Amino acid sequence: MIPTLVLVKIAEIYGLVAVLTNLFAPITTMMGLPAEMALAITTTMLTNPYAGILVLASTPGIENLTVAQTTILASFILFTHSVIIEAAISRQAGLSAGATIIIRILSGILFCTLLNSVFSTFELLDQIAVLNLPEMSLAPTLQQWITDQIKGLIFIQIVIVILITFLEILRLIGIEKIIRICLSPFLKILNIGQSASTIVVVGLTLGLGFGGGLMIKDVKQGLVTPRSAVGALIFINLFHSLIEDTTILLLIGPSLFTILVIRGLFVFALTFLLIKIFNNLPINVYNRFLLSRPINNLIKNQN
């Protein structure tokens, strides 16, 4: 996170932030967000929600964000955070990196655009959001900026310690079993096999790094078929690390029901539709555009 924050500061000094803001303005406007959110969104996509939260805390005008806007922002971050790193994990497990990145970004834009349309039409969640972020200086000197970043990093460290403790308590309670039981009917509808569904539950609770790692092992051992892996990977790419990532983004004051329940139903419906479409593609097209090169090579070697 420290190198990321330094790079963001350098980008700000040399005017690259303004370029980035103008570049992303059409997308952020379509989603109902101020163009200034572009830097926080990009930081989160390239790194993780923690770094994005710190960049967001330094963004001018965040005190004027409504709950509708923070809900949209949180939703987009949940769809696209760490997309480059997690696309590399998905590639090893079976889903091509290009397909992963495209599906996640376009899904995020679609969901957030729909949210913006609904919120604007019915004037929902238009009250000012309550932000629980470290207070940063406006137009800080270099010394003030360093102090702010240290303060922000300590804040994030405290949040991480609390989250780890919370996750451990949930693990002891047996939250994975509860989630598995609740998801079982949905995963059957998606035609995700038993082996893959177990990995999906791990991805949902612990994150794509853990779920994807297990998927890599099981696909290579032939315990999960490539097509089942693709379906499972699409689902956990769009909906993973529910407890940690959701809790982190509650710091910016979004609607929990929207970012968890509504987003979950959207992801389920979208995954179901994508699997249906992809399964009707000719096998050579499916293998070329969806299966990653390592898995294609594995299939060739097995044949």
Instruction: Name the structural class.
Output: mainly alpha
Helix content: over 70%
Overall shape: it is globular
Distance between the termini: 44 Å
Uncertain runs are none
Specify Rg, calculated over alpha carbons: 20 Å
Outline of the structure:
By secondary structure, this protein is mostly helical. 76% of the residues lie in helices and 0% in strands.
Question: How would you describe the overall organization of this protein?
Answer:
The mean pLDDT is 88. It is built from 16 helices and no strands. 76% of the residues lie in helices and 0% in strands. The chain has helices at 2-13, 16-30, 38-46, 49-57, 67-80, 83-93, 97-122, 142-173, 175-189, 194-206, 208-220, 226-238, 242-249, 256-279, 283-289, 293-302. It has one domain (2-302).
Protein topology:
Layout: H1 2-13, H2 16-30, H3 38-46, H4 49-57, H5 67-80, H6 83-93, H7 97-122, H8 142-173, H9 175-189, H10 194-206, H11 208-220, H12 226-238, H13 242-249, H14 256-279, H15 283-289, H16 293-302
Helix pairs in contact: 3-4, 5-7, 5-14, 6-7, 6-11, 6-12, 8-13, 9-10, 10-11, 10-12, 11-12, 12-14
Q: Top keywords for this entry?
A:
303 residues; mainly alpha; 16 helices; 76% helix; globular
